[in-house]
Amino acid sequence: MATPKVPPRGAMLPYRRQGEIDYAGLDFDPYEKSPKPDNMEQLNEMDEIVGLFRARFTDFNERPDVFLNRETYICYDPSDLNVRISPDVYLAFGVDARAIPPRKLYLPWEVGKPPDFALEIASESTSRADVNRKPAIYAAIGVPELWLFDPSGGRYYGQPIWGGELVDGGYRELPPTREPDGVLKVYSPLLGISLCWDEGWPLVYDPTDGTYQRNWRAEQAAAIAAQDQRDAAREERDAALAEVARLRELLRRGNVEGNETQGDSGPC
Length: 268
Prior knowledge:
The chain is of the alpha+beta class.
């Protein structure tokens, strides 16, 4: 596999703040996520992907050079901050991740670069824009990789998972593979991992060691297995304690009967 196309750990572009932002002059609230009538179709998968990426790429938000966010606004016209786009999930490497949130907006000309990765999750209300409108915007901004994840299996996007690499101003599809384990994978040259669609659920696969990063489903299965082991151990312990109590009772009865027998055999 090719070396991931991300800056070395710790490399960070300086954040170049350019004046004050007239938030009152915006026609939207930077903190207000745009409501979608079917937002609940996306939330579980979005949470899962953000969780996987937070663990893998940000060291659980400890890395100051990696910015991970969801459903916030990227403004791409310095002359008009109302011109914006909001990915479901996006990543930027080699940036000052702590300088971005106070500005409330992702401004590429201040950050020093556009995000490296953007991902959209399908729903009925957003799928047309995700497929027909947003790719051209992401390409114009210069986002190196764009991904589409369809929990329905392709009802909205036409296929379960799609990844594209920016080439000559447009996105060239990254080839999907279905491995012997049956999981649909697409390798990301940028991230150095494969994003996977597993019966509607996102997975991250590391081809360097052939393992899946544990996700919510895996954590849940592990938690259930651990609880089953604890329940079995408790049952074994309770059974052992019950057996000890039974044997003690037998021993006590034997001692009592022995004492009574000795008492009966004495002189009158």
